[in-house]
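To: structure subgroup
Subject: Chain for Friday's discussion

All,

I'm putting the inputs and outputs inline so they're searchable in the archive.
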Amino acid sequence: MLGKIQKRATKLVHGREKAPYEQRLKALGLHSLHWRRLRGDLIETYKILTGKENIDSSQLFQRARTTELRGQSLKLYKKKISTRCEKVFFQPKNC
């Protein structure tokens, strides 16, 4: 829904009505809704992992057990995904 609104709003700019969506975004200095959601997810993940949010990170993430992190202390374990639900939803390990 929000994506449709953004697409429609970019068509309202005079002289850009016929341009492809990606070109309209670039001309207006905007990012796609997909990119903004991904960025928001990454920022929220960082805040949870660093304790800036009042959420127990162990309920959502499993830290990697390797010692070869090149100075990075926030590396996460990535489990294999077996269902579409797990691909789409951000849920605690216990669900």
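Points worth raising on Friday:
The helical segments are 2-11, 21-28, 33-49, 84-88.
DSSP finds four helices and no strands in the chain.

D.
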